[in-house]
């Protein structure tokens, strides 16, 4: 039974595709500027099961770009803030919350925790990011990964492509290099932008831990990346309903 709140999507996609989404389980790792809006778009598409992962708390500096960041939520765990929001969108959502930072060595257990239909990488720390992608590839879990949205202002430069086709993005370069060490060269869908970053807008500081630097970010770019990432997940999931559609990439 497709609920009334999904009636507009039912009109667009039809019963079979919506039902496919309702029967899917998606893992979202990272609930910051990209991951928060991505998780919300996946929930609003009617996906019936989600596991969300983030050990960070809301800081007021997140307020310019992150869905869970409000003055009223400062200091609260992003995973818990997002969980409340997602279940308010879809009260029937079966939601698992993992409000803890995941080390590289924990990614195998995370990815194999359930039989996920899709995994989303919105992690912004290089080591765990690569470990998460690697675990997905090795365990046959379809994965889409967000590259760097920080320092970018032009939405027309954002692209969806195979990681082997990503270019002029520093994060994508580092991810590719690390994955190559594990024999992984292609087969991972990414969202990236080749827009050049002004290095004057990047600050190396211990305050960025576990990252090494802070980068200037505008309100809409992480949201655009997050929506593009969500579109890959949603389109690929409803494609499994057996109705031919154009590829998500």
TrEMBL record:
Residues 12-240 form the THIF-type NAD/FAD binding fold domain. It comes from the Bacteria. GO terms for biological process: cyclic threonylcarbamoyladenosine biosynthetic process. One of its GO terms (molecular function) is ubiquitin-like modifier activating enzyme activity. InterPro entries: ThiF/MoeB/HesA, ThiF_NAD_FAD-bd, Ubiquitin-activating_enz. It holds the Pfam family ThiF. This is tRNA A37 threonylcarbamoyladenosine dehydratase. It comes from Filimonas lacunae.
